[in-house]
Design a protein that fits this description.
Blueprint (H helix, E strand, L loop, with lengths): L5 H17 L1 H8 L7 E4 L10 H11 L4 E4 H10 L4 H7 L3 E9 L6 H17 L4 E7 L12 H17 L3 E4 L10 H10 L5 E3 L3 H6 L4 H7 L7 E3 L1 E2 L10 E2 L8 H8 L10 E3 L13 H15 L9
Parallel strand pairs: 1-2, 1-10, 2-3, 3-4, 4-5, 5-6, 7-10
Antiparallel strand pairs: 8-9
Helix pairs in contact: 1-2, 4-6, 6-7
Length: about 325
């Protein structure tokens, strides 16, 4: 048997320790297994209009996010009034993944017009390389709203819209959202249990679900096989923090690690992407700038093992 002296043992163990201290990147890779799952960003932390896209994309590119999402109407404004959306993508080097589109699912008289609008957005998104419509169920006045009074048209209209999206060669994912026709836990379960899921998939915003009074963890778990896109958002509470009560990732109450663990089961199977999101609120000053808040969220994910693009090289 070979015996190792205490001095030799110390020397041997000191080598990897010194190497780790000298190479922080190596230390991180040793501590945290890398997760091969891209993360994008929506643009609303920087604002909600067509003028906000380029400032957002400059920061999103700088922070190394893998893709981005904007509104269908923003893409349309660039396509029809500002020389095209493609040049914006080319200038900033961040691919478009998805478009957030709100359609009226309450008023039957609007379906023809709404369907034509959706088909137009689909064509523009697909033309520019996008893959998914994040579908928001609009048209509801939440005061005295009862989804059961609208349930037939609610489901029929969403099935019609979702089929139009799939016919266009894209994926449609339902996005429950505060203030809309699908907000609460019961409304979410009702919709996803009644819809034709050959056409309508699930694109939860975990922060919106939390703000709407639901625990997003069991909802994501129960409908995991339908999840094709996610708005990864944290919720802290309060309305005057500059972010409508939301917060940078890891600073709120949403069980993000548990949700991300489930989403890894969908790795390689989602038509869309995990999208970091943080709402902006111009009525109140936020404690961080947009890029600072986005960086804090990116760093939270980096510490969990998610990787981002390095544009410095």
């Amino acid at each position: 048997m070979n015996h190792i002296s205490r001095r030799d043992f110390v020397k041997m163990t000191a080598i990897p320790a010194a190497a780790t201290l000298a190479a922080p990147g190596l230390a991180h890779s040793l501590r945290v297994p890398q997760i091969d799952m891209p993360v994008g960003s929506t643009f609303i932390l920087w604002g909600y209009g067509a003028d906000d896209i380029e400032p957002a994309l400059r920061d999103i590119h700088r922070l190394g996010f893998h893709g981005f999402e904007t509104f269908g109407q923003v893409i349309q404004q660039w396509e029809e009034q500002r020389g095209g959306f493609g040049p914006v993508i080319e200038r900033h080097g961040v691919p478009i993944v998805s478009a957030f589109c709100t359609l009226d699912v309450i008023n039957p008289g609007r379906q023809k017009e709404q369907l034509a609008q959706l088909i137009k957005w689909c064509g523009m998104l697909k033309k520019n390389g996008g893959k998914l419509i994040e579908f928001c169920a609009g048209g509801a006045n939440r005061k005295n709203y009862d989804y059961r009074k609208h349930k037939k048209y609610l489901i029929d209209s969403m099935n019609t819209y979702a089929k139009a999206v799939t016919d266009a060669g894209l994926t449609c994912a339902l996005h429950p959202h505060t203030g809309t026709a699908i907000e609460t836990r019961d409304e979410t379960y009702f919709a996803l249990e009644q819809l034709d899921t050959d056409h309508m998939k699930f694109g939860p915003d975990v922060g919106q679900l939390q703000k709407g009074g639901a625990d997003p963890v069991p909802i994501v778990k129960d409908f995991l096989s339908l999840v094709h896109h996610v708005h990864l958002k944290d919720y802290k509470g309060g309305l005057d923090n500059g972010w409508l009560g939301y917060s940078p990732l890891g600073q709120g109450h949403v069980q993000l690690k548990e949700i991300l663990g489930m989403l890894r089961e969908r790795n390689g199977k989602m038509a869309g992407m995990i999208m970091f999101e943080l709402d902006s609120d111009n009525r109140h000053a936020a404690p961080l700038t947009a890029i600072q808040a986005a960086k804090a969220s990116r760093d939270y994910l980096t510490n969990l093992g998610y990787s981002f693009l390095d544009h410095k090289r």
